[in-house]
């Protein structure tokens, strides 16, 4: 099988790590690096022994690659993606695929129109943790989902925000924790429990000196009437917690531990059948065993290459990247309006909100540029 020739666009923190994956995998070959920062591009080119570009359009049109990996700041993912699709390339985009739903739509349409493979780097989907949760809910073990809860802290110090001019600004990033850190969790939460149809969010900048939100609490409503709650923040350390509750049981993920609770009878039946005043259901508790994981970023890239060869289904299709964008756009819009917002998000309303917020965005002072990805997520 021929190796898929890959060029990486944006070779800062995360992109550097993708370059190594493309070099190391049997299914791929790294053919160029591209970065608007000449020093970064030259250094990586020398280190990795491949040519460099500073203009993504020249890189895409170079004829050197079959596919590009986009690891630039988020706003520009759709512009580069659409250009790459139109020029016949397959695309693996970093998360989020776009900052706005309208931009995400454009990217998805370009992939479809040009019949190219489109994947998004949601590497958590490769983990046994996510696979088991998905299997449990999909198998019907907990019945129809009646309530959800997800608490998702992503602590960041001020020095993280000071490490890049684009970080945590409306113009540079288009949002805070919802757009940068939380898309991973929003993806797994919506992948497992489905996308709500309505959100009512409180968003604020609580602890950091930044323009965008660092603390978010959201009430959710699903199509079947189920309610949920979602919390994310860069103000709080440890630990991830999720409950998916159904009519026949519930599954609780605490950190990386999963516990499944099975009810003896569905709640909806038992409630009206039992004649005993203090009756309750028997609940059986099971600890869910996890399998060993492979490095997630690399697995997504390997699977992307195999999907290009039509030998595997995508683990993380770019089209499904829209769910996270719908969710966080709805939360930011709801927070700004202080009102509930429906999903799908109104595209033009969201574009107007962003346009206004970008106008308020200021050039950052006290920036100490660092392009280093979180070592915990580098693999
Ligand atoms: N999947 C993950 O685990 C994960 C982890 C970290 C970051 N990310 C994502 O990766 C992306 C990049 O984040 P980062 O932390 O690596 O940022 P970074 O600032 O370290 O690197 C971004 C690089 O893109 C370059 N760049 C900017 N505009 C460009 C353009 N038009 N053409 C070519 N290069 C350009 C910059 O010069 C910089 O070197 C973000 O979208 C982020 O959400 C994903």
The chain-level mean pLDDT equals 96
* Percent of sequence in beta strands: 15-25%
The dominant shape is globular
CATH class of the largest domain: Alpha Beta
The assigned structural class equals alpha/beta
Pick out the low-confidence regions: none
Ligand list: nicotinamide-adenine-dinucleotide
Largest sheet: 9 strands, mixed
Number of strands: 15
Radius of gyration: 22 Å
* Series of H and E elements: EHEHEHEHEHEHEHHEEEEEEHEHHEH
CATH topology of the largest domain: Dihydrodipicolinate Reductase, domain 2
Q: Helix count, per DSSP?
A: 12
CATH architecture of the largest domain: 2-Layer Sandwich
Distance between the termini: 25 Å
Strand order of the largest sheet: 14-13-12-11-7-10-9-8-15
How would you explain this protein's 3D organization?
The chain is an alpha/beta fold and 379 residues long. The protein has two domains: 4-122 and 295-315, Rossmann fold; 125-292 and 324-360, Dihydrodipicolinate Reductase, domain 2 (2-Layer Sandwich). The chain has twelve helices and 15 strands. It has a nine-stranded mixed β-sheet with strand order 14-13-12-11-7-10-9-8-15. A six-stranded parallel β-sheet has the order 3-2-1-4-5-6, with helices on both faces. β4 (67-70), α4 and β5 (90-93) form a beta-alpha-beta unit. α6 (128-138) packs parallel to α8 and α8 (183-193) packs across α11 (321-337). The two termini are 25 Å apart. The model has no long low-confidence stretch (mean pLDDT 96).
């Amino acid at each position: 099988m021929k190796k898929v020739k890959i060029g990486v666009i944006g070779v800062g923190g995360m992109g550097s790590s993708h370059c190594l994956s493309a070099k190391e995998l049997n299914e791929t070959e790294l053919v160029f690096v591209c970065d608007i920062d000449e020093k970064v591009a030259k250094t990586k080119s020398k280190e990795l022994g491949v040519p460099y570009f500073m203009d993504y359009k020249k890189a895409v049109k170079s004829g050197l690659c079959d596919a590009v990996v986009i690891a630039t700041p988020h706003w520009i993912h759709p512009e580069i993606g659409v250009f790459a699709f139109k020029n016949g390339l397959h695309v693996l985009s970093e998360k989020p695929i776009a900052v706005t739903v309208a931009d995400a739509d454009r990217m998805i349409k370009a992939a479809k129109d040009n019949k190219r493979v489109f994947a998004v780097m949601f590497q958590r989907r490769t983990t046994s943790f996510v696979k088991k949760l998905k299997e449990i809910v999909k198998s019907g073990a907990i019945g129809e989902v009646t309530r959800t809860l997800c608490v998702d802290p992503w602590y960041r110090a001020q020095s993280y925000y000071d490490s890049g001019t684009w970080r945590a600004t409306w113009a540079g990033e288009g949002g805070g924790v919802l757009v940068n850190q939380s898309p991973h969790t929003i993806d797994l939460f919506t992948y497992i429990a489905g996308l709500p149809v309505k959100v009512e969010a409180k968003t604020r900048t609580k602890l950091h000196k930044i323009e965008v939100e660092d603390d978010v609490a959201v009430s959710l409503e699903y199509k079947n009437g189920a309610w949920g709650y979602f919390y994310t923040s860069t103000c709080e350390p440890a630990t991830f917690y999720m409950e998916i509750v159904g009519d026949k049981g519930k599954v609780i993920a605490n950190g990386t531990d999963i516990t499944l609770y099975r009810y003896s009878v569905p709640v909806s039946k038992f409630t009206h059948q039992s004649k005993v005043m203090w009756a309750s259901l028997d609940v059986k508790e099971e600890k869910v065993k996890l399998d060993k994981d492979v490095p997630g970023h690399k697995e997504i890239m390997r699977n992307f290459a195999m999907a290009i060869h039509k030998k595997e289904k995508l683990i993380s299709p770019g089209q499904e990247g829209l769910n996270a964008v719908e969710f966080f756009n709805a939360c930011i819009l709801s927070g700004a309006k202080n009102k509930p917002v429906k999903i799908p998000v109104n595209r033009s309303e969201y574009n107007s909100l962003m346009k206004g917020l970008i106008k308020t965005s200021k050039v950052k002072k006290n920036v100490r540029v660092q392009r280093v990805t979180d070592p915990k997520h580098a693999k």
